[in-house]
Design brief:
- The chain is mainly α and about 250 residues long.
- A hairpin with a 6-residue loop joins strand 3 and strand 4.
- The longest helix is centred in the first third of the chain and has 22 residues.
């Protein structure tokens, strides 16, 4: 009896499913116990991979609760790629619907932050632009310029203090205060870094990422906050090596 890959995968991820009939041990018997051990090892290995991918989520939930959650996730979202380092893209959406954690409304966005850090780590390399170019641009040319952001750039806009939660649980940062935070993820060197942008700063960076002109990006920021200070946001982009090119002429 031939066992298809689909049957094998379904049986591996469903503890209530019978062992596929074509799987036998060296004595020709149905490989029940051997298959159960293998099935358990697969789920444990994938759960461990999720724990490494989402360490703050694991810390917030505790080992036992995270393992229960991870087991459910693995069975609903098996890997679609052989690269386990990239496994878990569906975790934020899963956390939004997983009933036992619905009281922890910040979890999905914290997971998005951890996922963005991993994506930034694996993103393509890019050389940051020379920051002195900005100093040499006349104001009118700067306002019409468009920025190209690095492949490692990510931004998460949240109603929760996700940067503070992440820092408190991974870098022994100060205890979070309840406020909305926007996470800017950049990779100036080998490892990604996280900066906390103001809502206005987030609006500006979102516009720049959309290839809007610098002037339009400034308008988006001042619409959020008439007293918006450009310095902090622009400094975060430059320090993070997030800007890799500036196009002075408007796009046609």
């Amino acid at each position: 009896m031939t066992v298809t890959q689909a049957d094998f995968q379904a049986a591996i991820l469903d503890p209530d499913r019978a062992v596929p009939g074509g799987l036998v041990d060296p004595q020709g018997r149905i490989a029940g116990k051997r298959f159960d051990v293998y099935r358990n090892n697969v789920v444990v290995s994938l759960s461990n991979a999720l724990g490494e991918a989402f360490p703050v989520i694991k810390k917030l939930l505790g080992d036992n609760n995270f393992n229960i959650l991870a087991g459910q996730f693995v069975r609903q979202h098996p890997p679609s790629s052989p690269v386990i380092a990239l496994y878990g893209d569906e975790m934020p959406g899963f956390l939004e619907t997983f009933e036992p954690v619905q009281s922890l409304g910040y979890l999905p966005d914290v997971a998005r932050l951890e996922l963005a850090l991993r994506q930034a780590y694996h993103a393509a390399d890019a050389t940051a632009f020379d920051a002195t170019i900005l100093q040499d641009l006349p104001p009118d040319r700067l306002l019409s310029a468009r920025f190209t952001l690095a492949p490692a750039f990510r931004m998460i806009v949240s109603d929760w203090p996700i940067v503070s939660i992440w820092r408190f649980n991974s870098e022994d940062g100060p205890k979070p205060s309840m406020r909305a935070e926007t996470a800017l993820i950049t990779r100036p060197d080998l490892d990604p870094t996280v900066a906390d942008l103001s809502p206005a700063g987030g609006a500006m960076v979102a516009a720049l990422a959309n290839r809007d002109t610098f002037g339009d990006a400034m308008e988006a920021a001042t619409a959020q906050d008439p007293d918006f200070d450009l310095t902090e946001t622009l400094s975060a982009l430059i320090a993070g090596g997030a800007i890799i090119a500036i196009t002075e002429e408007p796009l046609k």
